[in-house]
Amino acid sequence: MSNGIVVTSQSQVVTGVDQFSTGLSTYLTELGLPNHNVLVPVPERSRVINNLPEVINLVDSRQRNTSIYLSKFIAACGAGLFDAALNFIWDETVVSLRKKVIQFDLEYFYDSVVTDENRRKKLNDEEDLVKLDEWELVRGCHLTGILSDIGFKHLDYIRDMRNWASAAHPNQNDLTGFQLISWLETCIKEVIGKEPEGPVIEIKRFLGCIRNNNLTSADAQPINAGIEHLPSDLGTSLLRTLFGMYTGSNASVQLKSNIKLVCATAWNISPDEVKYECGFKYATFASNAEIERRDTAREFLTLVNGLPFLPSDTLAVELSEKINNLYTAHTGFNNFHNEPSHARILDSYVSSTGAIPDSVRRNYVKTVVMAKIGNGHGISSMSVSYYDSMLQKFGESEIKEFVSLLEDRELSSRITLTSCGTGYKVLANYFLSRTTNQISQQAIQAIDQASGPQLPNLGKDTRYKQLISSYA
């Protein structure tokens, strides 16, 4: 940054803080109110105040002028209300994420994070960002590359702390000055003071070309070359967007012509999960009698040789909806209360044989496993019987997906939490006696032998990846 911050009155601020605390304590006593454990001790506040200049220097001076929640954070720290200060860190981070999404590509972002067709129709402009849960905002920024893998993990933890140790809930948790200043530094480095770069900028350029230009085959060649080098997660998001643009009711002939030049490449680099998702949307259009969108969806799938990914029957469509409902309840606010009804409905769709259509198996296994191992704060007790019922029906195909889940970034992030990692290992040992597949048995043994810190990274281990790939 070109201009640093010079604070010449830190001692005066600390002295003022001390005087304020003494005066407030006396006043509370006069009012007959508690005056103990109301404010954080002055030495803890001093740690924040003394370290603030260096951390705030990480924010560009122009951006500081509008960072109102950073000012509120400092005020709350000075007043000794660390739980409120944590709220303000998170508020500033959310505001910054929304600004980055607006500057990037809203349609791409919405298509990436919202897979429910009916809900997606209600999200169109920047004002609609507030309709997304904060967790969806963070996850969407991760999916679209606005937020890095490391940034996502850090923010997921800070969001968790904000939910359970801040003024957002009644609590008496002790937060230290060093913790707060560390979290502030993380949010500034990963979000507030950081702009999207690399592949994210490439996608923005791709979409701009597709929307605004009249492309030829020659024009499309460098675009396709760029798409081929995208990380798989960003390729997934791009395919969702191209499919959504192509099947949109207001899609122009020129836009569709441009998409035809690049959609096959996006399709080829995407995992089967998102390909089946496109097939589900086709079936949804058909069942809702959206004739025009059904026909354009089939046209798109024909272009990319994707017709084999159409669902064989309506069960797959129904299951997909129920899985998504449970996943949304599990990752949303007040999940312990909201999960049981969705868990019960999903369990009712699974026959006694445990047969699950191939197209939804991975999401099914991932959602049930994540719900069963919990979120670090426990498990929805009223849902446990349903989860156990579904887990008991897992066959060889589901167990294969279970051991392959370590390659999933969201699951690997979840099991960094001690209770979740332990829960995943317990499930692995439960499945060991239920499988005769040697690859699955070796994978489960590797899971069992991994230490707590090793387990989240096991999916990236070369030997483990080779073992899992031998299923094919």
Task: Sum up the overall morphology in one term.
Answer: globular
Total count of strands = 0
Order of helices and strands: HHHHHHHHHHHHHHHHHHHHHHHHH
Instruction: Provide the domain count.
Output: 3
Low-confidence stretches: 1-8, 168-172
Query: What's the pLDDT, averaged over the residues?
Result: 85
- Roughly what percent helix? 55-70%
Cα-atom radius of gyration: 25 Å
Please describe the biggest sheet, giving its number of strands, its sense, and whether it closes into a barrel.
none
SS field, number of helical segments: 25
Cα(first) to Cα(last) distance is 51 Å
Structural classification: mainly alpha
Strand content: under 5%
Q: What would a concise description of this structure say?
A:
The chain is mostly helical.
